[in-house]
Design brief:
The chain is α/β, with parallel strands linked by helices and 271 residues long. It has helices spanning 40-43, 61-68, 91-94, 96-107, 124-127, 144-150, 157-169, 188-195, 214-225, 227-237, 240-257; strands spanning 2-4, 10-12, 20-22, 25-26, 56-58, 77-80, 110-115, 133-138, 173-181, 201-206, 260-265. The strands form two sheets. It has an eight-stranded mixed sheet, with helices on one face. A three-stranded mixed sheet has the order 1-5-4, with no helix packed on it. Bound molecules: iron/sulfur cluster. Iron/sulfur cluster binds at residues 28, 30-32, 35, 37, 84-85, 116.
Length: 271
């Protein structure tokens, strides 16, 4: 782990629903096999390192945030985070994200926190000071074994479902981010059953094949499900009709469970 400094902490974003992103760490020890943020290695001096095995922290994040926070307008959104998870295990000790949230809460800006860590529960007291702060928990891989292999450093999937429940019980507006949906692995029925009554809404996103480290993805999936099923996963992931069916299924399940669905994001997987 290295201590680094940043010139800016609120970076302009083109992601849907986010005007700024706030990445307090570099790298991510959750180490998801399907991670789209691996490209960050190139820009952060980690070319030779293994994604998931390093994390740097922006030691001057609080000072920079204090300088930048006033530029955020009342109707703009800040997303924590886009190319890391701001709840890295080391955050338990450093409390950098917690302190950043306190600054944001003082300005009562609009914040969306997306994480795979139950450490978010530590900060419920700060989150409740905002008038507009939502927390999303990523939970696209509901199968326990698959989750342990594909998201090795993240909070156990069952605990993530429990985290959503605890957030809701504590009055925090929260949502399930069902991402990535991987054919033959993600079980939408099971996810909906687990989040029912514990979320304000749900958002879906399909696997994005393009930014993957294809060798790592292939080898890991083959180890998990075998070469034949892996082939079927790829075929389905590139099939527009497959995703039409999944979107219909998600819509139907949301209706059945009475959960608002705010999006089903698709990627062009060479249809
Ligand atoms: S939690 Fe997000 S940023 Fe971290 S490894 Fe997983 S997909 Fe990448």
């Amino acid at each position: 782990m290295a201590k680094i400094t940043c010139k800016s902490i609120l970076t302009k974003s083109k992601l849907p629903g986010a005007d700024y992103c706030c990445n307090i760490y570099v790298g991510c020890t959750h180490g998801c096999v399907y991670c789209y943020a691996r490209f960050m290695k190139r820009f952060t001096g980690h070319e030779g390192d293994v994604w998931g095995q390093f994390v740097d922290y922006k030691a001057n994040a609080l000072d920079v945030l204090k300088e930048e926070i006033s530029k955020v307008r009342w109707n703009e959104h800040i997303l924590l985070a886009s190319v890391t998870d701001d709840y890295q295990p080391i955050e338990r000790k450093l409390e950098l994200t917690r302190e950043c949230l306190k600054i944001m809460a003082n300005y009562d800006v609009n914040v969306d926190i997306l994480t795979k860590s139950s450490l978010i529960l530590r900060d419920v007291d700060v989150i409740r000071r905002f008038s507009r702060c939502e927390v999303g928990i990523s939970c696209g891989i509901d199968d326990k074994r698959a989750s342990e292999i594909l998201e090795p450093g993240a909070t156990h999937i069952d605990e993530r479902f429990e985290t959503l429940k605890a957030l809701k019980e504590n009055g925090v507006r929260c949502y399930a981010f069902v991402s990535p949906i991987i054919p033959y692995i993600t079980n939408l029925e099971n996810i909906m059953r687990n989040i029912s009554g514990n979320v304000d809404y749900v958002m879906f996103e399909i696997i994005n094949l393009k930014p993957l480290d294809t060798g790592l993805f292939r080898n890991t999936l083959i180890k998990l499900v075998g070469a034949e099923i892996y082939g079927e996963i790829l075929t389905a992931a590139k099939n527009k009709h497959y995703w039409d069916t999944m979107q219909e299924k998600a819509t139907k399940l949301c209706r059945e469970y009475g959960i608002e669905m705010t999006g089903f994001f698709r990627h062009d997987n060479e249809y």
